[in-house]
Design brief:
Elements (H helix, E strand, L loop, with lengths): L11 E5 L2 H13 L3 E6 L7 H9 L2 E4 L13 E4 L8 H8 L4 E2 L1 H8 L4 E5 L4 H15 L5 E5 L5 H7 L5 E5 L2 H4 L9 E4 L7 H4 L2 H9 L10 E5 L3 H7 L5 E6 L7 E4 L2 E4 L2 E5 L8 H16 L4 H9 L9 E6 L2 E5 L6 H8 L7 E5 L12 H4 L4 E4 L4 H10 L5 E3 L3 H10 L6 E4 L12 H17 L2
Parallel strand pairs: 1-2, 1-4, 2-3, 4-5, 6-8, 6-9, 7-8, 9-10, 10-11, 11-12, 16-20, 17-18, 17-20, 18-19
Antiparallel strand pairs: 12-13, 13-14, 15-16
Helix pairs in contact: 1-2, 1-6, 4-6, 5-11, 5-12, 16-17
């Protein structure tokens, strides 16, 4: 069970922002004897988490973030990852010298199980899920437990983890900004691209947040890193951990792709065609999972079997089904151009109909033009449909259709399809112009696909 730590007894702690992770952190700190105050912006009447915590005897302040809260002499602030550092209470705490952490730091402090930490711009969730599947295929004692940004609060999973388990923890840059002592036994950096500059302020700050993952690691720990990226090769020279590279471009002293096969240090693990999910980015994700599997002592057969049966993560190039010999894939998680490029890499454009569009963040889509060349058709919706149509015209896509939303896009795409084609939802945009999140957008797509079958 969890380590019995006494560091928080009678300490005044402010938990800022609830949601799943804040609720979990507040409850844990309360159980560890801290004097917890919770502050959340959502009004009390529509805040079940706040109501539950109040019933436990936790002090709860909801509806606004009064700056005078900081006069209460807190010795720690646990911040929800989504709250920016520019928020006045966070700024005030930093000015007063009060440590500001995220709940993954608490998870590390109490966890009996070693942590395998995964970060990166794209592919975090898929790689995290692949790694857990690989480890669970071969572990004779204990289990690999998914935790962190993947939807299971780390501080909650850590409470029940045993020493023989592994906490396979997806870590976002927002979570990593708030770590202090967290030390993974194995860390994975899938890649670093442009993202979240609005939150971090600049690219160097964003890279710095990702790189914090390895700050406490020693020569006894392993850093699995994408060798395709020169920036990560440079950073790799600056870690105390043992570096284990993976690459789809060259033979490295780690995991690599060579002549259509995946290897780890000259041992052939499997053919690239045996990986259960399409797309070149999933080859990188599989290589990272192979590296972790081998470092954890898994057999080649167990690794191969786990990666063969891996069918993807919901909303990330997820195979939805086949209807009249047309395949459907849901990649609603593609909320930027880069993710859509990676998805398009996995398919033959001549047999592909793309569904795209969403929230207008002010950017153009010129970078997608080369990826649109050869597409059979494109069906566009949402605020960015005109901008995407411009890119599709430049790529000479023969059929460009405009429609209302994802639900209406599916029958239009199907009308233009023939046996052997694929219809892919990979929006290249956030969903917030029409849907509360990418999951709901993906669910609507899948419902529309089943409606095709039902309305036959």
């Amino acid at each position: 069970m969890m380590k019995n730590i006494t560091a928080y007894q009678n300490k005044k702690v402010l938990v800022l922002g609830l949601a799943k992770s804040g609720f979990s952190a507040a409850k844990l700190l309360h159980d560890l004897g801290a004097l917890v105050t919770v502050n959340d912006g959502k009004p009390f009447a529509e805040n079940p988490e706040a109501q539950d915590l109040l019933a436990l005897g936790v002090k709860v302040i909801t509806g606004s973030h009064p700056i005078e809260l900081l006069d209460e002499g807190f010795s720690l602030v646990v911040k929800n990852p989504g709250i920016p550092y520019t928020q006045p209470i966070v700024q005030g705490a930093i000015a007063k010298g009060i440590p500001v952490i995220t709940e993954v730091e608490l998870a590390y402090e109490i966890s009996e199980a070693p942590i395998i930490g995964i970060t990166g711009t794209n592919g975090k969730t898929t790689t995290t899920t692949m790694i857990a599947q690989v480890l669970n295929a071969g572990m004779t004692e204990g289990k690999a437990l998914l935790s962190g940004n993947i939807g299971f609060p780390a501080s909650s999973v850590a409470q029940t983890a045993q020493a023989e388990d592994r906490l396979v923890m997806e870590l976002s840059s927002f979570q990593l900004m708030g770590i202090d002592t967290l030390r993974p036994r194995i860390a994975v950096i899938t890649n670093i691209y442009e993202a979240h500059i609005d939150y971090h302020g600049s690219r160097p700050e964003y890279v710095h947040a990702k790189w914090k993952l390895q700050q406490n690691m020693t020569a006894d720990d392993y850093l699995v890193i994408n060798w395709n990226q020169p920036e990560l090769q440079k950073l790799a020279a600056m870690t105390a951990a043992k570096v284990v590279p993976f690459s789809t471009k060259e033979q490295v002293d780690g995991a690599y792709l060579l002549e259509g096969n995946l290897y780890f240090k000259e041992e052939r693990i499997m053919s690239v065609t045996e990986v259960g999910v399409p797309g070149s980015h999933n080859v990188e994700n599989a290589l990272a999972a192979i590296a972790v599997g081998k470092l954890e002592g898994m057999s080649n057969d167990d690794i191969k079997e786990a990666l063969q049966s891996f069918s993807g993560v919901p909303h990330r190039t997820q195979y939805v089904g086949t209807y009249h010999d047309v395949k459907f894939y849901n990649d609603s998680k593609a909320t930027n151009s880069l993710a859509t490029k990676m998805a398009l890499d996995g398919f033959d454009n001549q047999r592909l109909i793309l569904l795209a569009g969403g929230l207008d963040r002010g950017n153009e889509f010129d970078d997608l033009v080369p990826y649109f060349i050869g597409l059979k058709a494109i069906v566009l919706f949402g605020e960015t449909k005109d901008k995407l149509a411009k890119a599709a015209k430049e790529a000479h896509v023969p059929i460009i259709e405009m429609t209302e939303n994802v639900t209406t896009a599916v029958p239009i795409a199907f009308k233009h399809s023939q046996a052997g084609d694929t219809i892919l939802l990979s929006p290249a945009n956030a969903s917030w112009d029409q849907y509360p999140n990418f999951e709901i957008r993906g669910d609507r797509f899948m419902t529309a696909v089943s409606d095709l079958k039902r309305n036959e």
